[in-house]
Design brief:
It contains two helices and no strands. The chain is mainly alpha-helical and about 55 residues long.
Length: about 55
């Protein structure tokens, strides 16, 4: 019996973008991370962080 492979077009698109970003960075994780950090700093939005939660006491 043949099984039909289920595909999700959104996941396929994300994987294609991921592959393109990796290729553009020469498959170097450090280069990719630096490019992502640079992109985030130019994003024009404010990063909001929450304080750590207490231990409940």
């Amino acid at each position: 019996m043949k099984t039909r492979k289920w595909t999700d077009p959104i996941i396929d698109e994300i994987r294609a973008i991921r592959d393109e970003m990796a290729r553009e960075s020469g498959y170097d994780l450090h280069v990719l991370a630096e490019r992502l950090r640079a992109s985030e700093s130019q994003g024009g939005y404010k990063l909001v962080t929450k304080p750590p939660k207490g231990n409940g006491k």
